[in-house]
Write a structure and sequence with these properties.
725 residues, mainly alpha, Hect, E3 ligase catalytic domain fold, Hect, E3 ligase catalytic fold, 4-stranded mixed sheet, two-stranded parallel sheet, 29 helices, 48% helix
Length: 725
C-alpha cells in the first residue's frame, strides 16, 4: 500500500536531509529558509508574535509592520499555461477508473506538483492577476479540494509521483524573499491528505520547517488566507498537525522516524505552523473551530514543569518550550502547572518565614507556615475580610480555616466549606439567583478596599485549587488578564480590555438591547433619537454627565457615527466608569495569584479554573468511584446509585457538597474527585457521614432502598458544621 510504497520512495531519493544540509552549508552564514528561527528575546514576557494567546491581544496589520518586514515584493515569474478545469479533471478520473488507464491522471499529478510554479499554474484562479492582498489568496479552493479528494484513491505510482514532485519543490534553491506564488504553493501543499500517513512525515517535516521559517510579513498573509478554508478542512489541517506532534513525541514505531537528536526541529516547526492556524481562528467571530480543538492531550503525559521552567529561564530564546504556544496545552495540563507553581511558592514563602524566625532566635511555630483564618459562622463575611486584611503578608501561604467553636481539623474540607459559604453570602444574598451582578454592583460602590479583598478571595481559591460557585460575566475574566502579569510601572492601566455589545448583554441586557436596536434602526438616527456623544449615569443618587469623546455634548449621533457611539459607550460602561473599582479587584486577585503561569491562560480557562464545571454527570462519578468495605455489586451500593441517579439536580449538588465540601466539578471532571464510598460499621439508624477532606462518604449497610433514600436526603440536607469522631 501507500505506506510501503512511500517508504521505498524515501530510499530512492536518498539522503533527503543530507541534501538540504549541504545546501545550507553552501549558503554560508546566510539564514537558510529551511532553518526554524525563533526570535532571540531575552524578556520572558515578550512571547512569539504569532501566538496571540500569550501576547497582548493585538492584530498584526501589514500597514503597522516595521519597515524591515516590508520587504520589496519580487516580480512574479511567468506561469505556464494550464487549461484543465475541475470538470476536465473529474472526467479524466472517471475514464481512468473505468478503463484502468491512469496515464492522463498520472501526467496531471506529476506535472502539477513538480514545482511551485506548476502548482500555481494549475490552482491559481487567474494566472494573469497577482493576488497580492490578504483578502484573497487567489487559490481555486474547489479545484484543490477535488484533486486532493481523488488523490488517495489513485494507484501507488500516482501518489508517489506527487511526493517526488513536492520534494523537488522543497529542494529548490531559494534566493531573496518569497513571492506570493510561493506562499500560495505552501498553502496548497499543507492541505495534502498524504501527510496524515507517518511514512510521509520526513517530507511533511521539511515542508513545515520552511513555512515556519518564513518572515512575519509572509506569515501574516498565510494567517489571513487560512481563515478562508472551510471548517471541515481547517479542522483536518489542525488535527494532522496535532497528530504529527503526538507521534513524534510518542512514536508507535520509533524505527519509522529518524533519531530525535537529528530531527529536534520537527516539533518546533509543526507547533509554529499550528500557531498560524490558531491566529487565523482567533481572527474570526465566532471562530472557525473551538479553541479546545487546538489542545493536544498527549502533552498531559510529558514533564510539564520542565517545560514551564525552561520557558521561565530561557523565555523565547533558541530553547523551545510548549509554554511559548499555550493554545496547544489543555486546561487540565495548565491546572497541573498552576497547582505545582502554587505549591512551590507556598513552600518558598513558608521556608522564608522559618528562616526569618530562626535568624531572630525565636522559637518556630507550626502556625507560622500557614495562612490561618479563624471565623465565626454567625459573622462569616466580616470575620473573613478582617482576617485577610490583617494577614496580607501571609496570603501566599497554605490556607487553613478554623470555625470558632467547632472541633474540625482542616485537611482541606473546612477550606472548601468556608469558600462555599462565603461566596454564597457575598454574591448570593438570595441564594439561587443568577449572579452576573458583580460588575453591576461595582457601579454603585466606591469601597475600593472591599473590592481588593474580594479579588484576594478569588485569587486564594485559584491558588489553593478550590472551585467556587460563582458566575462572573465573561468580560470579567478578560479584564483580569489585562495584563496577565501586574506591570512594574504603577501608572500603567490595568483591567482595560476590548469589550463588545455581547459583553454588555451579560450585565445590562436592557441597555444592550436598546443599543443594538439603535444600530439596526433604518430611519434618521439624528432626527429621531436626538442623542449626542454625552451619556448620563446615576451615582449615589446624583445624575452625572460624561462626554464619550472631546466635546461629545456637541456631537450628534448619526447613522454614520452610531457604531462609534455604541463602542465608546460600551467601553465607558465596562472599562472607564468602573476603572478604580475593578483595578482594586484586579490587584487583590494578583496579590495572591501573581504567577507567570497566568500568561498561559485564556479568559475562558480562568473561568473554568475559578468555577469548575456546573454540569454534574453522576454516571461519570459512578464509573470512577472507589469502594472500601463494599463491592460495586453489593446491594447497598446498587441501592445508592439507583437513588442518586434519580435525584433532582438540586439534591445531586447537595450530595456532592456533603461528600466533598463543594458542589462544583473540578477541571478534570468527576474522575478528578477521587470519590470513595466506605462501609460504616455503625447502626443503620445512623445517618451517612462524610470526610470532605478526602471526598469520602461513609455509608451504613441500609436494609432497603427506601431507608437509604430517606437517611441520605436527611443527611445531605442538614450538612453544615464539622466535628471529630
Amino acid at each position: 500500500g501507500l505506506e510501503r510504497g512511500a517508504k521505498n520512495q524515501f530510499s530512492t531519493f536518498s539522503n533527503f536531509i543530507t541534501t538540504i544540509n549541504q545546501k545550507k552549508e553552501g549558503i554560508g552564514n546566510r539564514n537558510s529558509p529551511t532553518q526554524l528561527v525563533i526570535p532571540n528575546i531575552k524578556n520572558v514576557r515578550d512571547l512569539p508574535p504569532i501566538c496571540l494567546d500569550v501576547r497582548q491581544k493585538q492584530r498584526i496589520s501589514i500597514d503597522t509592520l516595521p519597515q524591515e518586514l516590508k520587504a520589496p515584493i519580487p516580480p512574479e515569474p511567468s506561469l505556464p499555461i494550464r487549461t484543465k478545469t475541475v470538470k476536465d479533471f473529474q472526467d479524466d478520473v472517471e475514464k481512468a477508473k473505468s478503463s484502468g488507464d491512469w496515464r492522463a491522471v498520472h501526467d496531471f499529478y506529476s506535472t502539477t506538483f513538480d514545482s511551485f510554479l506548476e502548482i500555481n499554474a494549475a490552482f491559481k484562479k487567474d494566472t494573469d492577476s497577482p493576488f497580492n492582498t490578504i483578502e484573497d489568496s487567489g487559490i481555486n479552493a474547489k479545484f484543490v479540494n477535488v484533486v486532493y479528494d481523488a488523490l488517495l484513491n489513485t494507484p501507488q505510482d500516482v501518489q508517489k509521483s506527487v511526493l517526488k514532485g513536492i520534494i523537488n519543490g522543497l529542494l529548490q534553491e531559494w534566493k531573496g524573499p518569497r513571492t506570493k506564488d510561493d506562499l500560495r504553493a505552501y498553502c496548497i501543499l499543507l492541505q495534502n491528505p498524504q501527510f496524515s500517513n507517518t511514512s510521509t512525515y520526513v517530507i511533511y517535516a521539511h515542508l513545515l520547517r520552511q513555512i515556519a521559517a518564513l518572515t512575519e510579513a509572509d506569515h501574516h498573509f498565510l494567517v489571513h488566507w487560512s481563515k478562508k478554508i472551510s471548517q471541515r478542512r481547517f479542522k483536518q489541517l489542525v488535527d494532522r498537525l496535532l497528530q504529527f506532534i503526538s507521534l513524534r513525541l510518542f512514536p508507535a514505531k520509533p524505527e519509522e522516524f529518524p533519531p530525535m537528536v537529528k530531527c529536534s526541529w520537527w516539533i518546533p516547526s509543526a507547533t509554529k505552523v499550528l500557531a498560524l492556524f490558531n491566529a487565523a481562528n482567533s481572527l474570526i467571530s465566532p471562530p472557525i473551530i473551538s479553541y479546545t480543538d487546538f489542545y493536544n492531550s498527549t502533552l498531559d503525559h510529558i514533564d510539564l514543569m520542565e517545560e514551564y521552567h525552561n520557558w521561565q529561564c530561557y523565555g523565547n530564546s533558541h530553547r523551545f518550550s510548549f509554554c511559548q504556544y499555550p493554545f496547544i496545552i489543555s486546561i487540565a495540563a495548565k491546572k497541573v502547572i498552576i497547582q505545582r507553581d502554587s505549591e512551590q511558592q507556598m513552600i518558598s514563602i513558608a521556608r522564608q518565614s522559618l528562616v526569618d524566625k530562626v535568624s531572630r532566635r525565636q522559637k518556630p511555630d507550626m502556625n507560622m507556615l500557614f495562612l490561618n483564618v479563624k471565623v465565626r459562622r454567625t459573622h462569616l463575611v466580616s470575620d473573613s475580610l478582617d482576617e485577610l486584611a490583617r494577614k496580607k503578608a501571609d496570603l501566599k501561604k497554605k490556607l487553613k480555616v478554623t470555625f470558632v467553636g467547632e472541633a474540625g481539623l482542616d485537611m482541606g474540607g473546612l477550606t472548601k466549606e468556608w469558600f462555599l459559604l462565603l461566596i454564597r453570602q457575598i454574591f448570593h444574598p438570595d441564594y439561587g439567583e443568577s449572579s452576573c451582578m458583580f460588575l453591576s454592583t461595582i457601579f454603585k460602590c466606591d469601597n475600593y478596599s472591599e473590592f481588593r479583598l474580594v479579588g484576594a478571595l478569588m485569587g486564594l481559591a485559584v491558588y489553593n485549587s478550590i472551585t467556587l460557585d460563582i458566575r462572573f460575566p465573561p468580560c470579567c475574566y478578560k479584564k483580569l488578564l489585562s495584563p496577565p502579569i501586574v506591570p512594574c510601572d504603577h501608572s500603567t492601566l490595568v483591567g482595560i480590555c476590548d469589550v463588545t455589545l455581547d459583553d454588555l448583554f451579560q450585565i445590562m441586557p436592557e441597555l444592550a438591547h436598546g443599543l443594538s436596536e439603535l444600530l439596526a434602526y433604518e430611519g434618521n438616527v439624528e432626527e429621531d433619537f436626538y442623542s449626542t456623544f454625552q451619556v448620563f449615569q446615576e451615582e449615589f443618587g446624583v445624575i452625572k454627565s460624561y462626554n464619550l469623546k472631546p466635546n461629545g455634548d456637541k456631537i450628534p449621533v448619526t447613522n454614520q457615527n452610531r457604531k462609534e457611539y455604541v463602542q465608546l459607550y460600551v467601553d465607558f460602561l465596562l472599562n472607564k466608569s468602573i476603572y478604580k473599582q475593578f483595578a482594586a479587584f484586579y490587584y487583590g486577585f494578583h496579590s495572591v495569584c501573581a504567577s507567570y503561569a497566568l500568561l498561559l491562560l485564556r479568559p475562558e480557562e480562568v473561568e473554568i479554573l475559578v468555577c469548575g464545571s456546573p454540569e454534574l454527570d453522576m454516571s461519570a462519578l459512578q464509573r470512577s468511584t472507589q469502594y472500601e468495605g463494599y463491592q460495586k455489586t453489593d446491594l447497598t451500593i446498587r441501592y445508592f446509585w439507583d437513588v442518586v441517579l434519580g435525584f433532582s439536580l438540586d439534591l445531586q449538588k447537595k450530595l456532592l457538597h456533603f461528600a466533598t465540601g463543594s458542589d462544583r466539578v473540578p477541571v478534570g471532571g468527576m474522575a478528578d474527585l477521587n470519590f470513595k464510598i466506605s462501609k460504616s460499621e455503625t447502626s443503620t439508624n445512623w445517618l451517612p457521614v462524610a470526610h470532605t477532606c478526602f471526598n469520602q462518604l461513609c455509608l451504613p449497610p441500609y436494609k432497603n432502598k427506601k431507608e437509604l433514600k430517606q437517611k441520605l436526603i436527611i443527611g445531605i440536607s442538614n450538612a453544615e458544621g464539622f466535628g471529630l469522631e
